[in-house]
Amino acid sequence: MASFQLSLPSSSTSQILSSRLRYKVVRCGSERQALFRRIAPVYDNLSDLLSLGAKMGDHVLDLCCGSGDLAFLLSEKVGSSGKHSLAKSCFMNIKWVEGDALDLPFSDGYFDAITMGYGLRNVVNKRRAMKEILRVLKAGSRVSILDFNKSNEPLTALLMEGVFDNFVIPAATGYGLAEKYRYFKSSIREFLTGERLEKLALQIGFSSARHYEIIGGLMGNLVAKKWVEGDALDLPFSDGYFDAITMGYGLRNVVNKRRAMKEILRVLKAGSRVSILDFNKSNEPLTALLMEGVFDNFVIPAAIGYGLAEKYRYFKSSIRDHWLSSINDL
């Protein structure tokens, strides 16, 4: 496995390594390690990622950061002293760590955002690396993974081969790096497609994942999000935190609706709105009868074929038991 670096703000370093306090240097492949050390000055020009909305005070991890170009960019977003000159040897809010991407030395849920540029393709166990990313990412936060794209489109794949054979490798020859870029070409050929990356992220526990093809499909950016899990009756947010709140088909299933509404009110900013969408329990007999008929004659029979009849019978009863849309019920 290749050794790599991690970058993050150093404002609270003592809190970071609580449960996994170790800086474990993993050496592999001296050849691969030497490859990235030799190629760093040339390779830096390729790396310019989005910062995932990183803001002042956030803790951001740049995984497999190489020579640190993205880390410097992120440092400007989360640092406390404004922009710095890249001429400085190191930004003061960055901590450089060499460790193992398969066993990150950070506590669970520490980072507000994680980026990885041109690294996942070179990790031996991609599933385990993604699980580690998920573990150290805060709930509600995102990871952005940029790399060369392995396209399903024959024309794009052919174009990628042509770019390497006719431009990249010949240009690299002048720097004595031809063999190194041939490795890049083969590593792209063996990489996961965007569709497989999305499936991998969802399988290991991310709640959403989307792969974006950029630069005509030559590059790809996987963005995955870790959702917040909690109790609607005891929301894990501070008072007045949200500018808006939505709830779709959820209030009907909450045991204590009054308490849930009070929690929504508590975490909503003054002057803001909440929108709650659900099936309607109508005061109109004809509408109520129509709803019953739709479930009895269409929804439940159709659900039987999928083995979901009991679940949709629950839906029907939950609507019947749902409160009326009246302010008096609140």
Q: Could you describe the 3D structure shown?
A:
The protein is α/β, with parallel strands linked by helices. The protein folds into three domains: 222 residues, 3-Layer(aba) Sandwich (Rossmann fold), CATH 3.40.50; 49 residues, no CATH class; 50 residues. It is built from ten helices and nine strands. The strands form two sheets. Strands 3-1-2-4-5-7-6 form a seven-stranded mixed sheet, with helices on both faces. A two-stranded parallel ribbon has the order 8-9. A hairpin with a 4-residue loop joins strand 6 and strand 7. Helix 5 runs antiparallel to helix 6 and helix 9 runs antiparallel to helix 10. The radius of gyration is 25 Å and the shape is extended. The N terminus and C terminus are likely disordered.
SSE topology:
Blueprint: E1 4-8, H1 13-16, H2 30-43, E2 60-63, H3 69-78, E3 95-99, E4 111-117, H4 126-136, E5 137-148, H5 154-173, H6 178-189, H7 194-204, E6 208-214, E7 219-225, E8 242-248, H8 257-267, E9 268-277, H9 285-304, H10 309-321
Parallel strand pairs: 2-4, 4-5, 8-9
Antiparallel strand pairs: 1-2, 1-3, 5-7, 6-7
